[in-house]
Amino acid sequence: MINETVDKLARMLAESVPDGLRSMREDLENNFRSVLSAGLGKMDLVTREEFEVHEAVLARTRAKLKGLEDRLDTLEQAPVKKKAAKKKPAKKKAVRKKAAK
Q1: How far apart are CA 8 and CA 29, in angstroms?
Q2: Is the pTM of this model over 0.70?
Q3: I need a labelling partner for 89 at 20 to 30 A (CA). Which of 14, 74, 81, 98 fits?
Q4: C-alpha dihedral, 5 to 11 to 14 to 19, nearest 10°
């Protein structure tokens, strides 16, 4: 598709050349084509389809991020629950009593 576009542009540019340079039209068209191809080749272009795929991925990622931010806000606003005081296991008390004797 890009090659077709480059060919079309090169043809249009060559047709716009003044009448005095018409004899060089084919050479100019080839030069236009190579310059356009080189210029477009340096650009980091993607197809419309690839762009739309990345756009959809970004939309899903934004939605997930929004959900996580909302969840975090909810957790941060919830009252802090104190952990129930843990009783020490009986085994440890027994070991301590034996060590003291």
Answers
A1: 10
A2: no
A3: 81
A4: -150
